[in-house]
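Repro case for the chain-ordering regression, as requested:
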Amino acid sequence: MQNELKIRKSILWVFSAIWIGILLIDYWDKHPLYWYSITHFKYLSWSIILLTIGSLLGLYCSRSLLFKSIKAPWINGLVVYLLFIIGLCLTAFSFNHFFQAELNFSHYWHLVSRSTYTLVCSFIVLLSALSSGHLLARFAPYLAQIGGITTYLVHLALGFFIIILGLFFLGYIGQLKQLPVLIWLLIFPISQYQYVIKYIKKVLITPFILDESWSFWGYFAMYIGLIYSTINFFFVQAPFPLGFDARNYYVNISKLLAESGSLVEGFQPYAWSLLTSVGYIAFYSPEVTLFLSTLGGYITCWGIYELGTRYLKLNKNYALWSTLLFMITPAINNHWIIEFKIDLSLLFIQFAILNLLFHWFFEKKKTESSTLIKDKNDWMIVVVIAILMGFSLSIKVLSVFLTYSVFLLYWLFSRDKMGALGLASIGVSLTLLLKLDEISGLRAYHDLQNTTAIIFILIGVALLSYSIYKNGVKLLLRNSKPIVLSGLIMIGCFSPWLVKNYSESSKKDVISIILGGIPNSELDLGKMLRDYKKQDE
Amino acid sequence: MNRISSKHILFALSIFLFLLVPSLEAQEEDKVLTEIPLGDIKREEIQRYFGYENVLFRYLTVPYDSSINVNQQGRFVDIGFLLIAVFPLILLGLSFKNKKAFYSIIGLLTLYLLICLSNSLLITLEAYYPVVNDDWDIAIKPQYLSYTDQFLYHLYAFSESFMSPMIEYAKNNNALTSKITYGILFSIFLGLLYWSMSKVENFKKEKYLLIVFMSYFFLWMLLSGGIIWYGFLFIPLIILFIGIIFEQESLSRIYKNLIFTVLIIWTTTAIINRVSNIDVTVANYEEHYGKTIINGTIFPYAMGIFNEDQTIDYSTPNLSKALNKINADDELIYMVGTSFSFNIRNNLKRIFSDNALGNIWWIAKNYPDKSTQIDVLKQAGIKYMIIDLHTPSLDKTPEQSLTQKFQLLLNTLYQNPSVSLIGTDRIIEFIDSNGNQQKLANVFGEKILNPGSYAIYEIL
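-- result from build under test --
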């Protein structure tokens, strides 16, 4: 037995080594620029200076080596800001070694002042979201009891929902202008000034309460993340985004909203572009618009850390490195520097949902209950999650993927595996019946799509029937209630966009109402040819 | 009386389906795409991320393709190798205690790797070589490849020969695979879901995370055509999963250290890669490698040296003059690619996008004469044409359909008196009447010195 276990352990690491070896070679071969990045690395001095600062900071915060005798590390938001400015100027100085522009103090002052303006304006928007979310969350007192990052995430997510809803109605009546938008943004922080002042003090002035379990490596990971954010910040200090989709679509929508002062016709629901348009409208700054496009990604890092430590009980230092691993993923990083899309903002809402969901589940698990909804608090959680899911639909319709996962978990909580499997089967079948695979064009390469869908729906129905047979109808009804309620609330939250799409679209089918019309559909190739043919004749 | 169990239900379902499928199949029309139309926009634009092999293998190889970036390269689709190199090993580690599951997963992973490698491609900076190529032996000799390319060439060839019965069967039975692919995928998904629901009892917190990951990843794979940013959620979830493996006491130190080493390698190289920031704008200029931690186009603006207009001209020569002309009126614009719409006033109402050139192809089909083609656009109210000269570089289709259409457009514009060039950054060389070599900003010429990125025409 022991021998067999030893053999298995050996097989595990030998197989893993071979697997990793082959795939690493394959990956490196198809990404030759990584090798060139190493062989042509030109920022050694810059790296040494920043790594030295980071190491000293790490030692200071973890009270190691030279700093063993200090009482408590003194780090607050302003110190972080100072580090950010140092990193910004040092990066500009190092880059200019190659760029060779004639820079003087006024140029660095311009950089620092414009960057500070961008951060301050974005912070105002953040405060507006936080205070409005805090106000709404008074109807769900349970949220405040959760505490920690989860509460902030949910407040922020709810807050952004309210802000964007207000902007939507301002756009609807053609009042996306500086004064109305500023009033809307400031009304919540002003009405909750005590909460806001307390928050500002906590974030900027009061020294942070540092976690005792964070080691030098944990602090080092955070510091590297800060440096990463700093060098990415340069791409936000631009008159326009560099990426194709950002220029043609996402940031373009924000610009069009600012130009017209009202909602833009066509396009899929563009809730986050509506938010980022306040950069142009309220602050006359493309930089603020670009930074707001990236803000969701930074908030996501908190969500990753919270999910990792609070619910998955991972080592806290690994969780800090997880956020860094997330940030350095090139496809993710691309959304901070080139393509200012809405996907990172969507990710932040998704993490708010997951953190709230996991918190709720694990609290209930402690009581060893298999009943998801027992009291008013549970219904409140369902409502809040549904609101956030509806909100995420207005950012990107494909966030329905997470809705599917959430509904599965709702059902599975009751330990009805067959029922959950039945629901899963019906869910995936509906994607075929609704022809959602046409969006990618892949439907054309399949046959028997409807047959397959019907078969798996029947499988789902059979599994649900078995569940009823085993557990009774009561369980089915009990499990269905949060799903049905969530669906209705999601439609409610998404409805302003449905109404907009319905009024604009010439086609009144379900897909057009959900996805919106094609912008500028007045130009129609068919009409063009017909008109020309008529003229010809 | 014996209790009815889930196994009984599944058996009954199988019998029912065996009887039902033929009658349902008889009612479906055969609608599989057998001919590839020239001008399939979704095929060119979206499916370049997903691949063009047999439909079943397209789906099965998604985790490998999206990590190794076989189909589409570039930073914007680069998610690193943690998904394919580390995540399957996490599943292996979690099943370590169960002997049957452990060896089954090893077998499945080996089979999966063979499937992926047999469908993979050799890619270098200079060229793009499919392994399975009738002219392979004549056109490309392995000894001309780098060491890693040679290793991969032999690895792909071995995998391809090992998997050839399956691949050949799929190729010769396209109609069958098109019918059963969805069924296979749904069954795999439901099977994995069932496994995680019932077998992952000891890891309760991971169970919920696993279900979220699997269901989300499956829908992404099914519906998003391999577009990475539609499924960003699974990236941080993978990273968190890796953290779980370090908490498992039953796993050996060697195994954990191996995973840890991979993470360190990835972290270091990804950070260096970002600092060096070698992207497509400098890929052909080795003297600039490693310098562009910040984009040189926006640096002057960030430092207050340039204003917005100066930044536009600095990034794209000769553009602002053409844009000023366009912004002086409200006429309609025909646009192929480029991102200049951002700088055009009232762009939503004015721009008619034809990024995949489907519309101009249809006009050309109806009216072969190129002056008439321009006249069609003119009669529709279009006054300007903005063209991205890099359009063919997006073409990943085996039949090169996008490239063909782009050539058609260039033929339309070549020496066409109905259009006038008002802006381009392409530089050509020509011999003037005195026999001297001259340089000029133009699209067509004897010799192209700088290929440029755009051309703007006015319809006269």
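Ordering looks correct now. Chain B touches chain A through 176 residues (CB under 8 Å).
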